[in-house]
Backbone:
């Protein structure tokens, strides 16, 4: 029995040594992938220490020689061309060779957040016009990489998953928001698009931030450690960053789109800080300040009064502290009885238009709804000035959802009229107004839009 045990132990060790002598790659570097165009991108993997590896990039037939260091992890920077493909990349070592085929060069975006980003055409409640959208989802140059759910106590060097071509079969289970975002980019830019979906329904922002965020911010750490277990998502701080994000950080991306916040409404007071720190931690991990575009949560019947609108306001204010960010407002497509609005087309379109204008300079239209800029008390009235206010209009007979307050802080409904792309508000109950707020309710579906047909964000002037 002892001899048999030793034999199998030696066999295991011998097999392990053979396995570790071979080149292995992370899952995100695989057949059918999209690499970021016109960049110095990293290729990396693992091999036996001292292993000499030759890498050949098919778009320029350039050879790269590298020797695996003592860590057994190797990496090399290669230059990518303008968008195109398909190409091959080969990795040849002493004992094996890996050839990746059908590699495209284009634009790569990470698509993250909670259930509204995760929501697909095949989810039980579906999306608007779901059957037709699935049927027409034949885009060979759009590629999907879905990261299966996995948590981790420590940052992981690899994430599970594989690249797939966009077809009706693959699209129906992929993030609908991400798909509509990618389709718009693909059609407008006419280049390959890679979409990496690692969203997890019900997840709070705390699980997506790196450990350093909490080490450096005791207030955020206290909040994170106080999270209660839920049936939808893990709540351990950094657990989804460790399991679903860190292994992607060597992979060059164009940017991130994000749809999350519903699970943080009860902790809205520090969301702006937490969100900004989380975005900063991702950028630090990747090593550059990529664009970060996000969706303001939609009106919904939350349990506690005003907690949803406080979170929406925190997201609006985060624009001021997160460089290279953008936010889309979706109050006009809300379903206040359903936290998952089925109109994912407009969400993806608005995110894509942000990217096309800000990241690619390929869209001339307005991409933002009216955003509160300033207020000025003029006698018994308040003038409200907005950014992105050209063509300011009310959809309906009169403008709704404005309130004013005096020095006592008590708000009353206000009459609101549009004049020269400003909103003038007043109330008989408040002869000496001090502050103004708009759409200040969990379920408010206001009717203030700009000429581009984009809705105004909720705000308070306090």
Residues:
């Amino acid at each position: 029995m002892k001899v048999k045990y030793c034999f199998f132990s030696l066999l295991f060790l011998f097999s392990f040594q053979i396995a570790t002598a071979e080149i292995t790659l992370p899952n995100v570097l695989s057949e059918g992938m999209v690499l970021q165009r016109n960049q110095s991108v990293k290729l990396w993997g693992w091999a036996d220490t001292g292993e000499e590896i030759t890498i050949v990039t098919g778009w320029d037939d350039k050879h790269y020689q590298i020797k695996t260091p003592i860590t057994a992890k190797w990496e090399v920077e290669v230059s990518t061309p303008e968008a195109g493909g398909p190409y091959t990349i080969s990795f040849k070592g002493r004992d094996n060779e890996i050839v990746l085929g059908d590699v495209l060069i284009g634009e790569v975006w990470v698509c993250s957040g909670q259930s509204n980003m995760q929501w697909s055409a095949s989810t039980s409640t579906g999306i608007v016009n779901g059957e037709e959208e699935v049927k027409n989802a034949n885009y060979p140059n759009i590629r999907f990489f879905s990261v299966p759910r996995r948590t981790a106590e420590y940052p992981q060097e690899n994430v599970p998953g594989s690249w797939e071509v966009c077809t009706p079969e693959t699209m129906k289970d992929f993030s609908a928001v991400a798909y509509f975002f990618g389709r718009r980019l693909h059609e407008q830019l006419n280049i390959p698009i890679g979409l990496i979906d690692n969203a997890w329904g019900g997840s709070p922002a705390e699980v997506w931030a790196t450990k350093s965020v909490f080490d450096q911010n005791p207030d955020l750490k206290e909040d994170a450690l106080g999270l209660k277990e839920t049936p939808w998502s893990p709540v351990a701080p950094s657990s989804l960053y460790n399991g679903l994000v860190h292994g992607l950080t060597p992979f060059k991306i164009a940017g991130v789109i994000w749809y999350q916040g519903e699970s943080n409404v009860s902790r809205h007071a520090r969301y702006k800080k937490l969100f900004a720190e989380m975005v900063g931690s991702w950028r630090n991990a990747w090593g550059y300040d990529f664009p970060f575009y996000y969706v303001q949560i939609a009106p919904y019947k939350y349990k506690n009064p005003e907690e949803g609108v406080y979170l929406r306001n925190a997201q609006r204010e985060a624009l001021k502290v997160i460089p290279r960010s953008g936010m889309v407002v979706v109050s006009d497509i809300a379903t206040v009885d359903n936290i998952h609005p089925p109109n994912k087309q407009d969400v993806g379109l608005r995110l894509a238009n942000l990217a096309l204008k800000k990241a690619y300079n390929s869209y001339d239209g307005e991409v933002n709804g009216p955003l509160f800029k300033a207020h000025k008390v003029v006698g018994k009235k308040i003038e409200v000035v907005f950014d992105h206010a050209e063509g300011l209009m009310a959809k309906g007979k009169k403008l709704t959802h404005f309130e004013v307050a005096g020095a006592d802080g008590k708000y009353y409904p206000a009459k609101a009229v549009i004049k020269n792309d400003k909103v003038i508000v007043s109330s008989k109950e408040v002869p000496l107004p001090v502050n103004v707020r708009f759409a200040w309710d969990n379920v408010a579906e206001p009717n203030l839009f700009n000429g581009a047909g984009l809705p105004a964000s909720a705000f308070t002037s306090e």
Summary: Residues 1-20 have pLDDT under 50 and may be disordered. The radius of gyration is 25 Å. The chain has three domains: 2-103, 106-358, 371-460. DSSP finds eleven helices and 23 strands in the chain.
